[in-house]
Amino acid sequence: MTKSFRLRGVYPALVTPFDKSEGVNEEAFRSFVRTVFDHVDGFVPCGTTGEFDYLSYDERKRIFDICIDEANGKKPVIAGTGDPCTRHVIELSKYAQDAGADAVIVVTPYFLHPSDKGIYEHFYQLSRAVDIPIVMYNIPQTVGGYLPRRVIEDLVDLDNIVALKDSSGNLTYTMEVLEKVEGKIDVVVGHDEVVLPSLAGGCSGMILASAQVYPDVWQKVFKAAKSGKMDEARKHQLTVQKLSRIFCRYGGPVPVKIALKYMGIDMGKTRGPLKEGGVILHEDREEIRLELEKIGKVPPSEPTFEVPEIPLENRFEDIGITSAEILTQKIMMGGAGAGEGINKVGIDLVAGTSNGPVGVSFASQLVYLRRGFEALPSVLEPNLSAKPCCLIVPQVELKNLRQANIMYGPAQAGIAKAIADKVESGVIPVSMIDTHVMLTKAFVHPNALDRAVLFKNFYKATMEAIDMAFNKGAA
């Protein structure tokens, strides 16, 4: 046969849906293929993301049948027929061929690792046993070794070896393969984090776990890259880079099923022993949801917390500074907000001598930490605190590590820079940097998304709050 099958465009490595008893949920699978149909160029059932190694051969055959039926000849189906045993791969590939699949994808033999000659024989025997196009599959993260480049060079001369999926993420390997097989077979990227550089290097498409979550984004990346619009392609890839990283680092099935569930598509849990609770932390699950929100795959969270509408002098009582003390002891105070939506921040600030009420509260916040409201110093860089020393106290309880990171990182840096700039400009007298301390109560929405935007907003709000406080006079 000739190499008439061309592997181009965006292909999802489909998850396999399971019901509560861990049986294959056939109706959910049919429905899911229909859901992504218009956004992809073809389908890859029973791959790594499809948990192929946890499926019986009969289950895999049934999944092939359903996917082929739903594709209905309108889009190609590449059936995952990989197995450590050559005779089993041949059996599954013959079935896929007879069922109407357009190609099969076969992973490098694993567990009992054959020699290079054994790997060659694995694919050679398959190519002689079937007429269907064969896609080789390199995924050293799970197989425990690379599909050797010299073996690939020999295999590409076989008529029905038509492509390679490279999921290594190793661009050096990818480029070496592209150099050696140029014009003989297609090479597609299977590692979500390096799609753009792989396309720029010559890959003809992609087979990705994330291509069933945001195939529309990958279509934009693919089309822009193939048109030479690299800046546009880069812009689109960066919008999903964090999600792609999470999918790659945690393995496809678990994070993809979590993402799909957030999107209202319940594909069940993964089969044991692969359990999401033991793979993905709660904070990372929340990151998935927030990143999906960024790209419009889930509805945005509406802000439910606001800076309290009470007089500024009454906002510090929970940290031990009364309104009477503020008004009678020349404590400087200021308040300001910046930003919009869930990236809106608020700063309430007090400054006073280190031996006065502000200094007492400062020491108390350091010694008696309140769970969820732990105070941290503002820092310009690690081990370099802003002067005058300033503590940041959250206004909204921090309930997990993600919220703490989004709060303290941008807040610490933005507030510290504002203090340093106000000292340099003379708004905060240099004479006060060792005699005074500051406390800021910082507000940020628990679902805030963008650290860079938050840094700018904290900086702006702190600058305005300092102006307000120090323009009222020095203590």
Structure report:
The chain is an alpha/beta fold and 475 residues long. It has 2 domains: 9-294, Alpha-Beta Barrel (TIM Barrel); 312-470, Ribosomal Protein S5, domain 2 (2-Layer Sandwich). The chain is 42% helix and 15% strand. It contains 17 helices and 14 strands. The strands form 3 sheets. A 7-stranded parallel β-sheet has the order 1-7-6-5-4-3-2, covered by helices on one side. The protein has a 5-stranded mixed β-sheet with strand order 8-9-14-13-10, with helices on both faces. A two-stranded antiparallel ribbon has the order 11-12. The mean pLDDT is 91.
Give the arrangement of secondary structure elements.
Blueprint: E1 9-12, H1 26-36, H2 57-71, E2 78-80, H3 86-99, E3 103-107, H4 116-129, E4 134-138, H5 140-143, H6 149-155, E5 161-166, H7 171-181, E6 186-189, H8 195-201, E7 205-208, H9 215-226, H10 230-239, H11 241-249, H12 253-262, H13 282-294, H14 323-328, E8 332-338, E9 345-353, H15 357-367, E10 376-377, E11 379-381, E12 384-385, E13 389-394, H16 401-425, E14 436-444, H17 451-470
Parallel strand pairs: 1-7, 2-3, 3-4, 4-5, 5-6, 6-7, 13-14
Antiparallel strand pairs: 8-9, 9-14, 10-13, 11-12
Summarize the structure in short.
The protein is of the alpha/beta class. It has helices spanning 26-36, 57-71, 86-99, 116-129, 140-143, 149-155, 171-181, 195-201, 215-226, 230-239, 241-249, 253-262, 282-294, 323-328, 357-367, 401-425, 451-470; strands at residues 9-12, 78-80, 103-107, 134-138, 161-166, 186-189, 205-208, 332-338, 345-353, 376-377, 379-381, 384-385, 389-394, 436-444. The protein has 17 helices and 14 strands.
